[in-house]
Design a protein that fits this description.
Blueprint (H helix, E strand, L loop, with lengths): L17 H6 L3 H4 L24 E7 L3 H12 L11 E10 L30 H9 L4 E10 L9 E5 L2 E6 L5 H8 L2 H5 L1 E7 L1 H12 L13 E5 L2
Parallel strand pairs: 1-2, 1-6, 2-3, 3-5, 6-7
Antiparallel strand pairs: 4-5
Length: 233
Amino acid sequence: MKPYKYIELAIQHAPDNPVAVYLFRPVSQLLNTEVTVRVGGSFVFPPAGDIPFKIVVFVASGMGINPLISMMSWLGEQGKDSRWRGLEVRVLYGARVSRDAWSQEAVGAEMALKPANSLLDPCKIPFLPRIAKLFSSGKLQGQVTLFLTGLNSASNPTGDVIPCENLEIAYLRRRMTLADVQAAIGEKKGQDNSVVYVCGVPVMTDEFVGRLAAPEPEGFGMDKRRVLFEKWW
């Protein structure tokens, strides 16, 4: 496989973060400038060590989708003869959608009474079309579930489906919970055959990782080597 000649990043505007401030300058000030990139960390796929698994659960919140879309893209490029062929990939993606992600018809009290798939633009959710195409093309096998908050999210928590790149994606208008993650993993058999990657805001990440790896009955009782995480602020 040929090496890539570029690095792709999704960056949230944060006036107090020096890196974000630098990268949100006008394009004319950024083109042809030199930057230094350092590679490292343990949040990588596959996980270190000899850990057998048949299911990988990717749990993302907001910009936490960044490293996970990289892993999914890499998996999708491995080809039919790869050792990862047949791996079950389950994606739980929580995102806050802004007003411009919804159709004009949606901005109002009547929004809660209409199907989500007629109101939401999936292209407004970072990397969603790319994720959908990986699954609809057959490069990845499994399922994608969205947990979207924002405009009137509490008024219709049951959600609907969103068509995107020939894939119908299950959609819930509420926050993701630990129970959702546990359901994606499955019971004891699922724990022994799964690895979980969690990337999101510290509060969510700490809760999910802590409870997943905590002994039963207080927690889910997973082997700590099977629960990997990265935080973003």
